[in-house]
């Protein structure tokens, strides 16, 4: 590997709506101490400390104090970019790129994923950095273990991306699994800051210009609200990755989950010998004695102001509950 500056760009703006009622706007899932006594955000910082020479955290005005509290645990300086209003991942990554030198290599890490680091993780990073040095935009693909409908997919041949595909229905996801040349789209990326900005300017000039204007007017990392509203809200996938000709994919053989649903959380906890009954039902959030009768694979989620019972396989429907509460401006969010 060349001796570039490698910057870990941690994105903390998500609200984790599919993990309601555990995840709230006031305490999103990446800050919950659910995972071996640590938050996912904390694990993300720790995982990438050994190779990153810089850290940039891009979050929003509602969670910046939580970020500062966690970063205070680490003996490291970091750049904190605070969005006045969420404008999706293309803009968030653009801010980090504007704050970097063009030759700096950015590793884009969502703060709410669980990754088993170690040999396979390090090998994937080394390969991604090598490709980024060759001016490619690199995405990490996860080999599917089941026909998952909650992830987008990358169709590939060797390191070359053939196409990106939206979240499929179960029938199509099963076909992808059988064909074998489809990866889950992990949301992890690696590229030079200058290369990303060049592609963003080419593919989405409006996003580029508005993001640059907001960044140049920022004060101590805090972005202006009115200027931020002028930025089109679009993901990095739509803005750049699905349209650039300079894309490569690195197969990720490490264990990965975006823990984007209670089914993912269930699987994670069960693998770590979390208590369950004989019908594989579990309880999250309370030590109160709970008995399940006549049901299997259920999750009871308890908080001080909300109670939810769901079939593990119906976890994706939690987002509908969140959206319903959002439509009535519920204080439960």
Please trace the helix and strand order, writing H or E for each element: EHEHEHEEHEEEHEHHHHEEHEEEH
Proportion of helical residues: 25-40%
Shape: globular
Terminal CA distance: 45 Å
Question: Unreliable stretches, pLDDT < 50, 5 or more residues?
Answer: none
Beta-strand residue percentage: 15-25%
List the helices and strands and how they pair.
Layout (H helix, E strand, L loop, with lengths): L5 E6 L28 H9 L5 E7 L3 H8 L7 E5 L4 H11 L6 E6 L3 E2 L3 H15 L3 E6 L10 E5 L2 E6 L4 H10 L2 E11 H11 L1 H12 L8 H5 L6 H6 L5 E6 L3 E2 L4 H10 L10 E3 L13 E5 L4 E5 L6 H10 L6
Parallel strand pairs: 1-2, 1-4, 2-3, 6-10, 12-13
Antiparallel strand pairs: 4-9, 5-11, 6-9, 7-8, 7-9, 13-14
Helix pairs in contact: 3-6, 3-7, 6-7
Question: What is the structure about, briefly put?
Answer:
32% of the residues lie in helices and 23% in strands.
Q: Can you walk through the features of this model?
A:
The protein is built from 11 helices and 14 strands. By secondary structure, it is of the alpha/beta class. The strands form 3 sheets. Strands 1, 2, 3, 4, 6, 7, 8, 9 and 10 form a 9-stranded mixed beta sheet that branches. Helix 3 crosses helix 7 and helix 6 crosses helix 7. The chain is globular.
Features:
alpha/beta; 14 strands; three-stranded mixed beta sheet; globular; about 25% strand; nine-stranded mixed beta sheet; 11 helices
